[in-house]
Structures are given as structure tokens and as C-alpha cells.
Amino acid sequence: MKKWIGICLAIVMGATVIAGCSNKDKEETAGGASNTPQKTEFSISMRTLAFNYVEKSPDLNKDKWVKKLEEMTNTDLDIVLVPHKEFEQKMVQMFATNDIPDVVQGSGGVNGKEMAGSVEAGVFMPLDDLLQQNGQNLLKVIPKEAWENVTYQGKIYAIPEFLSNPSRRATWIRKDLLDQTGLQVPKTVDEYLTVLRAFKKLGIENPYMGRQDFKYADAFFGAYDVFPYLTMFEEVNGQVQPKFMDSENMMKALQTYNTMYTEGLINKEFATINPTNYKNAILSGKAGMWTMNANELLQWEQQLKASTPSAKLEIIASPVGPDGKGGSYLYGSATRTYFIKEGTKNAADIVKFFDWMLSEEAETFFTFGIKDETYKEENGKIVYTSPTDSVAVDEERYRQSFLWLVQDTTYNKGALNTTEEGRSLINVYDTILANEGRDGIQFDPRLDALVKNPDIAPNSDTAPPVLLTHMVKMVYGKEPISDWPKVVEEWLSKGGNDVIKEATEKYNNKVGVTMPRR
């Protein structure tokens, strides 16, 4: 354990501790699995996820919803916020300094880059026995696939938030603008470009809303099935390789973005647009089309109407490529995950806290809020009206998504079923999203060759640095797109050959391999 910490310290020599670290004095004997009414005290690190409500809060530990959550669960939380944009870096720093909260929120499985090998190093405790004794709701509701994502050497090491439909991201369009163009809903890449050109003629500043690192701006990589991400491997002539090695289709995707850049269909500064500016541009009515998680459609539409009352948002099928398919990458079964630090004395009560998240009481609280304050009951039925002003929508989104730590994050069924618009969104999941999405061969744990070579290692939804630099230059016209095979060779020379060798061996030996779901 000490050796592992020393290695991490060497990696981040001179790094600072996570911003917003614990500022509560905690008693050594807090909690403990007992039957007394004593509050369960524990600290928990949480990624801000670029939620406005969270990032603008002066002290989330004093937030009224946190206080109500503590009251309902007889807990005393010490929330340590981890900045969204620096999540992986700050997590590594946290492990390096050994300033680890009682509960650590990860972003997926046990082998995520942000976990910095901490599970293997014994930083966290196995939870199997605790779950059997105190987590029956969790075991009953969370699907097997999600538990598998947080299992290491046969033992469960985290409690996962889960996703029943892996197709989560979707293509959004300003339907009111599309109606003004007189065009039909686009399907192919060429039809999409036609619509974007029509949006530009209407004076829309960002016909297609771009974003840094192509994150939430990657629909056309999906059309050509060349997402340069961690999960996108395929078998080609007996060799397992990343999909971005399909140079023919990768160059077509890059050419599409170059065309959009050259014609002004995407912001000239898209490569530096951060999540906040991305959302602000959309909500101020300056965008015509973009990608976002489908479950946020109604909330974003309400916020958009504050600046553009006539706006109408709609989810449409993502652009399809030569094979007639498209869509965003498919998420894993586990989204956020919660690890309990080894030696935490009140671990049993912490598991009970997470188990409560799947109770009817919790569902009512997170979905609708507080009785007679945010909702009413009439004849035994809940009467709830979703907020319309931007600030209140941010607060609702925070309560329903950020603060509800363990749930099926596909969509909030309770809230959507209260309106016709909500039921229509559920139908979108059952029709459009159920029939699109790209996937690939996956490896868990992460391939050693990728762990050893950060420059060539992609993240879950962004390309590795060595590729990303060339991708941006090619879209900006500073490098010829025809040089993509040379980029692949560079990736191979910097350790990619070892990645392919290891991936192929594990694939052939059926070791840690998951096959594509679609």
C-alpha cells in the first residue's frame, strides 16, 4: 500500500490537493454499524459533472436538499467536490496524497483511469457481505451487468448507478428551425449537411454546436463507425484493433468536419469550447443541432424558451453512414460508482444509505421534492408541475440527477409520466434510441499496454492525445486528411503495436473480453 502511494506521489510531484477538500472535523469513532439513532457520518467525493447548480453553490454541504437528504437518512454527509474538467487529474492527486474520503465516486468500473490502480492496491473494501446484510434493494434492482462492471477478482468493490438502456446520448435539433427551412428530418450525412447549410442561411450562429475534444460533438464519427474511444475495438483479418485504424472511413468522417468548418457550419473555435460555453450557446438560441443525453431534453427546452420562446427541441435519429447505421457510443451498464475505503468503521450504515436510494421514499423525494413545497397530493396521487425558469430547472436537474446517487439513469420515469411531453420522450427511447448506437469489443481490466502509454490511451469518450492533436489540425485544414494512415503509424510506433498484440491474445483466449451489444 505504501509503495503504491509513493508511486502515485512521484507521478504528481508538487500537485495540489483536490479543490474543496473536506473541511468538517470528523470524529474517529463516527458511525459504526449499530442500532442506535446516532447519525451516520461519512465523507464522499463527487464529480461536479458541470452541473450549474453544483458549481455555483457556495457550500453544497449547506444546501437545503443535502440537509433534507441527511434528515431523511439520519446521516451527516461531508461532500468533497471534484472539478468536472480536471476529474482524472484530481483523482490521481487524491490517491497520491492519501487524502481519501470514506466514499469515493468513480465514473465507471473498477479499472477506470481515474481510479489510478487503487482497487488493485487494496485501498477499498470488498462489499459482498455488507450488501447481503444491508443492501437487498441494491441487489434486487441493479442488473447483473452493472455488478460485473464493479467486480474485481470475483468480489464486488463498488455500488453502481446503472443504465438499463445503453443508448443514452442522442442527436437534438431545433425543430422550429427545421420547420422554417421546409426540409425533412435528415437521415444521411449529406442530408444533415444540407440542413446545417439551411440553418446558416437562417442566420444561426452555430448550425452544429461543436465542443472541445469533439466531446458531445461526435455524431459523424458515429456515422462512419470510427469512434476513437476506449471501447471501440474490432476484429479485422484475425487481428483485434481500434476502429480508428479504418483509415478510409476515418478520413470520410474528418472530411465531413472539415467541410463543416470551412463552410461555417460549426464554430471556428469549436476545439476550445468548454462544457459551460457549449451549453450557454445552446440555451441562448445560438445553435441548431447538437448531441446531449436524451433524458435532459425537457429541462433544456424549458431553459431555452427563456431566451427563445418559440424554440422547440426534438430528438431525431443520428446520421447514418455507408452501412446504414449510426448513433453515439453505447454506455456501460454502470455510470457512477461508489467505493468504500478500507477500514471505514461505519461501512454497514453507509451501505444502508445507498440501499435507501432505491426505496419508494427516495424515488418520491428525488423525483418530486418536498410535499407541499414542490408537489402536492390530491386523492392519494402526486400532483407535480415541472419548473420553467432556468434557475429552478437547474435545481430540479440537480436533485433528480446529481443528488440521486443510485438509480436507473436512463430517464426519470416518474417525472416523465406526469406529462404528455414526458411520455413522448419515453417513446423516443423505445423507438429511436433503441435502434441506434455504436459499440465494439471491450476489455476489462484495461489493457496493460494502454495503461503504460497514456499518450496513446483513449478515454471513455475522447480520443488519445496523439490522435486528437492531428484530428483537430486536419479539421482546421492545417494537416492533409490524406495523412491519416501516417497518424495511425505514429500511434502504432508509440505502443499501439503492443496494444493490438495484447488485445488479440486476450480475444483469442477469451480473457476479460466483452463482445459488442449492437
TrEMBL record:
It comes from the Bacteria. The keyword Ubl conjugation does not apply. InterPro entries: Bact_solute-bd_prot1, SBP. Residues 1-19 form the signal peptide. Keywords: Cell membrane, Lipoprotein, Membrane, Palmitate, Signal. SUPFAM superfamilies: Periplasmic binding protein-like II (SSF53850). This is ABC transporter substrate-binding protein. It comes from Paenibacillus odorifer. The lineage of its organism: Bacteria, Bacillati, Bacillota, Bacilli, Bacillales.
